[in-house]
């Protein structure tokens, strides 16, 4: 495990490069296939609205997968993640309008831990609303 | 509907092994738009110290979720699956999942509570490799909302 960011280079408050992740219906169909989660609320508008949703919504696990990319792109080693957790607070609504939705993710070093690890606090929003709560990762740096 | 408290602390036998393939990892990485070479190129993964291509961090959920599905579908538990949403998710990794792994999942119900008509179930999935070593642990909170409490979320 060799992260390209050194533990000694970062401080509490160090900001990670932010990421912008587009989500369209096509994205959700691919994610459904790759993950095996075929819940129709993620691809069938009629079903989604019948259960009271405003429209088709992204898989929470898709949003979780995108959010950690800000951390793994920063460290350079996706295997450097030691812990990762989120709460799913708001759905990412994905309209079938050719544009879909965008998830914007930022991260900041919140704590320096033992064993060359740091805790990164992650913020993920879509349409100006926070879609993940308590999104935190612990990564081992070089 | 109250959940059957006798399920709390219950562990289930390990699942049949899930064999992690390079092409499955590639497919998952592509589906999340991830282009890091460690997911597709064994040499790039080796340069980072991994014996083969590694899976993106959340990939392991596809395995633990399948295992959890068998547990929460048990009608005796009393969870209304039609109203279930994913409340939260957490992982702890001993090492990344990688191609060639044969992984089994042992699921445990850690908590089952009812508050304001909604049911909450905390499930832990311990993921072991073929040699019996722990690879990762996944914690999932499921929420079955009270019948008059709007719609599903995630």
UniProtKB/TrEMBL annotation, chain A:
<feature type="domain" description="MaoC-like">
    <location>
        <begin position="20"/>
        <end position="122"/>
    </location>
</feature>
<dbReference type="GO" id="GO:0005835">
    <property type="term" value="C:fatty acid synthase complex"/>
</dbReference>
<dbReference type="GO" id="GO:0006633">
    <property type="term" value="P:fatty acid biosynthetic process"/>
</dbReference>
<dbReference type="Pfam" id="PF01575">
    <property type="entry name" value="MaoC_dehydratas"/>
</dbReference>
<dbReference type="GO" id="GO:0004312">
    <property type="term" value="F:fatty acid synthase activity"/>
</dbReference>
<dbReference type="InterPro" id="IPR029069">
    <property type="entry name" value="HotDog_dom_sf"/>
</dbReference>
<comment type="similarity">
    <text>Belongs to the enoyl-CoA hydratase/isomerase family.</text>
</comment>
<dbReference type="InterPro" id="IPR002539">
    <property type="entry name" value="MaoC-like_dom"/>
</dbReference>
<dbReference type="InterPro" id="IPR003965">
    <property type="entry name" value="Fatty_acid_synthase"/>
</dbReference>
<protein>
    <submittedName>
        <fullName>MaoC family dehydratase</fullName>
    </submittedName>
</protein>
From TrEMBL, chain B:
<dbReference type="InterPro" id="IPR016709">
    <property type="entry name" value="HadA-like"/>
</dbReference>
<protein>
    <recommendedName>
        <fullName>UPF0336 protein JFN87_10070</fullName>
    </recommendedName>
</protein>
<dbReference type="InterPro" id="IPR029069">
    <property type="entry name" value="HotDog_dom_sf"/>
</dbReference>
<dbReference type="InterPro" id="IPR039569">
    <property type="entry name" value="FAS1-like_DH_region"/>
</dbReference>
<feature type="domain" description="FAS1-like dehydratase">
    <location>
        <begin position="6"/>
        <end position="137"/>
    </location>
</feature>
<dbReference type="Pfam" id="PF13452">
    <property type="entry name" value="FAS1_DH_region"/>
</dbReference>
<comment type="similarity">
    <text>Belongs to the UPF0336 family.</text>
</comment>
């Amino acid at each position: 495990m060799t992260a390209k960011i050194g533990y000694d280079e970062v401080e509490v408050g160090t900001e990670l490069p932010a990421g912008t992740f587009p989500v369209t219906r096509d994205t959700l169909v691919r994610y459904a296939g790759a993950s095996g989660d075929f819940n129709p609320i993620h691809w069938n508008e009629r079903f989604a609205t019948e259960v009271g949703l405003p429209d088709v919504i992204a898989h929470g696990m898709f949003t979780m997968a995108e959010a950690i990319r800000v951390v793994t792109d920063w460290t350079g080693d996706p295997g450097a993640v030691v812990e990762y957790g989120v709460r799913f607070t708001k759905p990412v609504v994905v309209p079938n309008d050719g544009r879909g939705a965008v998830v914007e993710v930022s991260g900041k070093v919140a704590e320096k831990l033992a064993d060359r690890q740091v805790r990164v606090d992650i913020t993920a929003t879509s349409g100006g609303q926070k879609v993940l709560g308590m999104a935190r990762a612990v990564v081992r740096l070089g | 509907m109250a959940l059957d408290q006798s399920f709390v602390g219950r562990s289930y036998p390990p699942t049949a092994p899930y064999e992690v393939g390079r092409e499955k990892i590639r497919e998952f990485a592509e589906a999340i738009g991830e282009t890091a070479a460690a997911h597709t190129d064994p040499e790039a993964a080796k340069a980072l110290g991994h014996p083969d291509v590694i899976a993106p961090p959340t990939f392991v959920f596809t395995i633990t979720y399948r295992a959890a599905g068998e547990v929460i579908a048990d009608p005796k538990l009393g969870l209304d699956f039609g109203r279930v949403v994913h409340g939260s998710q957490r992982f702890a990794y001993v090492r990344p999942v990688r191609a060639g792994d044969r992984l089994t999942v042992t699921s445990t119900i850690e908590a089952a509570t009812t508050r304001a008509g909604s049911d909450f179930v905390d499930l832990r999935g311990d993921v072991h490799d073929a040699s019996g070593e722990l690879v990762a642990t996944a914690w999932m909170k499921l929420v079955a909302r009270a019948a008059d409490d709007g719609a599903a979320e995630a």
